[in-house]
Amino acid sequence: MASTKGSIYTVGDVESDEVHHSLARMRFIMARTSILFLFIVSLILATFEFTKMYHGMHVRIQTSSTGLETFEPTSYFFHKSTAINNRLTKLVGLNWTSPQRPTIGKCTVAHGKHNEAYQRAIDTHLAHSKVNGYTMFLLHQPILDGLWSKEAALLEVLLLQLAKPAEERLEWLMWFDADTVIINKLISLEIFLPPAHRPDVHLLFTKDWNGLNNGVFLIKVSAWSVDFVSSIVSFRTYRPEEELEFTEQSAMEKVMQMDQYKDHVVQCPSQWWNAYPNDGGEENVHFDHRPGQLLVHSAGIGDKGKVIDEWLGKLAHQRYLYAMPASGTNYKEQIEAFWRGLDEEREANDDNDTKDDPRRALWD
Question: What SUPFAM superfamilies is this protein classified in (predicted)?
């Protein structure tokens, strides 16, 4: 091979060195291009998943033997977050904390002569569930007579959840009648749950001028709740002599008063999540819906379709009046004051109970 006088390299050595550097540059460029490509693709996928999580469709994933349908959010982040996170970390070093798994589900029954209007109302609940990532359970057919399918469907959902491992099950369920319309889908249900220091509370309910209204209530996924709902479903069997003016609703009210249940239920203000289109004739108690509140319930109204469509029309043309984040309402202040008041009342009752107790000297 020829050599250059005075040079320490041969021509072949120089050519080999240039080829080596060219290949190295090409490998470097390809590696950087691959990383950039993977990063862009990962970013697009992440954006797509977050978009689905907040605005995507629900998918029906299960139908039970009774006809109960289960609708889940479509986002992978509620099911595959760990796997996706690990994969992206290995590829491009991208890492983040996945959104917290929702702990609340929503349940309802919809059938009968108002069913078309009910479906329009349920669409607002689906939209609310999409924004907040809630699972929804929907029964389209009766499984018991009258209105008793309500508690039967709820009992099925409770049992299905309790059969799951604790880390996979929902913690609370919201029952909503199909004649309720979500007015402010930006309000999450978590804000209504009892504070952490009240694990003894298993049911949140509201009352109106007729007593209990169970068109909307929150119930914990627990063995207590299974016993409670089972007692309602079977009430007609072991208390056949009892008059039930409002059928299963009256049964629920009577069961709530039983010794084993009464200390684990809490009455909440109706306007929080069970507001009506009007006050019902009550001058001092406001049951009617106010802008920013979660929903409106057509309780006791004959032409439910008319009222449902009226509120859907308001949403279509004046959404800016009703849809606002919780921070734009007084929910936080009301809820904190409510539970603080209950705590103070509880402490006062405890003091009164022990004041005249002859065993008190043993405790002091």
Answer: Nucleotide-diphospho-sugar transferases
